[in-house]
Amino acid sequence: MKGFAVFAIIFFLTSGAYAQRMQNNCHPAMPYHGKRMVSTGTRFYVKKIEAKKTENGKQRIDIRFNVPIDPRTVKKQQILIDGFSLPDETLIVFNKAGTILRIELPVPSKKTFCLELKNAESFNGTLLAQKQFDALCSNYEGTFDEPEEGEQN
After folding, report:
1. Which residues, at least 6 apart from 50, have a Cβ–Cβ distance to it below 8 Å?
2. Which residues does residue 53 pair with via DSSP β-bridges, in sequence order?
3. pTM assigned to the model
4. Are strands 132-136 and 30-32 parallel, antiparallel or unpaired?
5. Which residues pair with 104 in a beta bridge?
6. Sign of the Cα pseudo-torsion (44, 72, 68, 143, in order)
7. Cβ atoms of residues 119 and 102 within 8 Å
8. Which of 6, 9, 61, 152 is most buried per CB count within 10 Å?
9. pLDDT tens per residue across span 44-82
10. In the chain, % of residues over pLDDT 70
11. Separation of alpha carbons 94 and 109, rounded Å
């Protein structure tokens, strides 16, 4: 009986170490909210932007992507409103699927504003096709088609 217990302990320790090594080295997918997102090789672009004022006096901007965005590539310093990075009190959240980025910030001082997303990438490392969106306002809703090959801003 002692021999079996020793065997079981050794078996569980080695299988756990092997599984950890396999998880780190073998699979090209990345974990995201418990899901594994496998790269598909598709273009990465914005499908829709909605901007509106909230009840608490903030500006909410929802950005919908065609494939999940890698949240590690979205930082407050890399999202610009009229050329300036987002204020510290800005809230940035993602939906579970990673296809919607929500930004909630103090209302910009100008009636219309420009939004720029610098260095945003999908999980397979594809850079965002269009980075700058002009003439947004508090009650804006716009949809976008897939950009032509080579078209970027």
Report:
1. 61, 62, 140, 141
2. 59
3. 0.72
4. unpaired
5. 60, 91
6. negative
7. no
8. 61
9. 999 999 999 988 889 999 999 998 999 999 999 999 999
10. 71
11. 25
